[in-house]
Q: What sequence folds into this?
């Protein structure tokens, strides 16, 4: 690992937690400076649990702050030695962007601008940042390639992620900062987000409550297991690119009904299905074209949906004394 002092934004979030944990466990000489505002978009207990695990590592240095607050960001980090920024913090979720659009502009646009400005101010060589498969919008061409046009977002969340990519190019062009954008495809796994389908399905099935199945089950997602995503981020850190955008997916779209059947199998319990129409901002199908990621990053996802959901369900059951409460 070339970089010794790595700032991870959203370190108590799902992906930020797993990346930080991987760095701390596999690189003795790496310091992780984690920042997170521990907000209540979902139950903060989960973020606190993730953060408590990370605090067991002596090379983890946590600062509670909101990176959309420029003054707080600079005050807390101006004297820190930072070699690399991995910007994973964001206001996530497509559906919530219909209810509270302002928080997406504040966190994803203003917050990302602040992170890029911080990189410029502190003369940081490289930023690896999270984008999303949602930028592909309603594209009909399948699979989704990094070369596809992405100027028709169908949710405000997608629009903010696309604007992050455009800002990243501007900061690379103007200031020479190396910018690597990663378009994540429906990430799942242990300590995942409770607002996402697999957590909600698992919880409600165990509680004997109905699960909402959108588009009457006619949905396909390129579900990507968390360890594969972390592997892709690490490869993006290690490779020396000036400016690139990569898909990080599984290259294996899964039908929603099939995914539900796997959860039923691993829980040993049938779901009560409440079929619903497709929701505003949702797309019927996602599929990552990994040609570029495989060639340039050496990225090759290993965990298929059957194994990934098995691991997730086993973890959920092992921790159901608190997972069912979130």
A:
């Amino acid at each position: 690992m070339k970089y010794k002092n790595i700032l991870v934004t959203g370190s108590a979030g799902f992906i930020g937690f797993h990346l930080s944990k991987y760095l701390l466990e596999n690189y003795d000489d790496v310091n992780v400076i984690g920042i997170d505002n521990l907000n209540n978009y979902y139950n903060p207990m989960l973020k606190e649990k993730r953060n408590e695990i990370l605090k067991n590592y002596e090379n983890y240095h946590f600062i509670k702050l909101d990176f959309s607050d420029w003054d707080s960001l600079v005050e807390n980090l101006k004297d820190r030695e930072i070699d690399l920024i991995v910007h994973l913090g964001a206001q996530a979720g497509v559906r919530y962007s219909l209810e509270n659009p302002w928080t997406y502009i504040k966190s994803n646009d203003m917050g990302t601008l602040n992170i890029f400005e911080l990189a410029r101010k502190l003369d940081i060589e490289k930023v690896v940042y999270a984008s999303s498969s949602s930028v592909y919008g309603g594209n009909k061409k399948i699979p989704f390639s990094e070369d596809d046009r992405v100027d028709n977002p169908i949710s405000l969340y997608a629009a903010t992620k696309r604007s992050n990519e455009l800002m990243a190019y501007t900061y690379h062009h103007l200031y020479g900062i190396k910018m690597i954008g990663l378009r994540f495809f429906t990430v799942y796994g242990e300590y995942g987000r409770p607002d996402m389908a697999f957590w909600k399905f698992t919880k409600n099935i165990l509680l004997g409550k109905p699960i909402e199945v959108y588009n009457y089950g006619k949905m396909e997602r390129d579900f990507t297991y968390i360890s594969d995503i972390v592997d892709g981020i690490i490869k993006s850190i290690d490779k020396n690119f000036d400016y690139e955008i990569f898909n990080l997916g599984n290259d294996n779209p899964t039908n929603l009904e099939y995914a539900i059947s796997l959860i039923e199998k691993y829980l040993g319990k049938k779901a009560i299905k409440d079929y619903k129409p497709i929701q505003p901002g949702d797309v019927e199908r996602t599929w990552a074209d990994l040609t570029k990621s495989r060639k340039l990053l050496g990225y090759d996802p290993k965990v298929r949906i059957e194994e990934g959901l098995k691991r997730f369900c086993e973890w959920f059951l092992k921790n159901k004394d608190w997972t069912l409460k979130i």
The mean pLDDT is 97. The domain at 5-187+223-251+285-302 is CATH 3.40.50.720 (Rossmann fold). The chain has twelve helices and 13 strands. The chain has one domain: 5-187+223-251+285-302.
